[in-house]
Amino acid sequence: MPTGTSVHVTALDGIVNVNSLFTLAVFVGLAWNPNDPSNTLIKDQACAAGPSKAEDLVAFHVYSFSSFLFSSLIALGLKQAIRISKSPTFHPYEFIARTHKSFLRVGMLVSGVGSFCGCGFLMMALVNVVQIKLGTLACGTSSDSFAAVIPLVILVPIALLIYASIILYAFSR
């Protein structure tokens, strides 16, 4: 049966791995040019997105990247603290490197919040991609944008609520 510390290290590994995948998605999103010069996908040219949507797209990608990086660095720092405290050469007066249960819990909570925020910002970036490619949401429910955005804004928050519930459950243990 795994000890509490090995479970924590495994959970921190999971956070770092997922953040790495999402960070890759952010970089691909930033490198990709979503503009369609001929606007062939937008049925009504009055619904075409302006430059502010492209600015928002880049901003949300940067916010997402920052959140995932923050979360990963906290998780990696916690893993190092656990490894140092379990080392046979650990000096008992090295307070910062000692793994206290409350320090570990708060660190995991902060790392989870960083991942949570990163997912939210990534979702907002995807909403802006849809508006740039298919037309703005301001054009009404007849727009193809709504058909693309509705599953996104329903499924991602549900997944984030499940994720937050699990993080809070782990925090309370």
From TrEMBL:
<keyword id="KW-0812">Transmembrane</keyword>
<keyword id="KW-0472">Membrane</keyword>
<feature type="transmembrane region" description="Helical">
    <location>
        <begin position="146"/>
        <end position="171"/>
    </location>
</feature>
<protein>
    <recommendedName>
        <fullName>Maternal effect embryo arrest 60</fullName>
    </recommendedName>
</protein>
<feature type="transmembrane region" description="Helical">
    <location>
        <begin position="60"/>
        <end position="82"/>
    </location>
</feature>
<keyword id="KW-1133">Transmembrane helix</keyword>
<feature type="transmembrane region" description="Helical">
    <location>
        <begin position="103"/>
        <end position="126"/>
    </location>
</feature>
<feature type="transmembrane region" description="Helical">
    <location>
        <begin position="12"/>
        <end position="32"/>
    </location>
</feature>
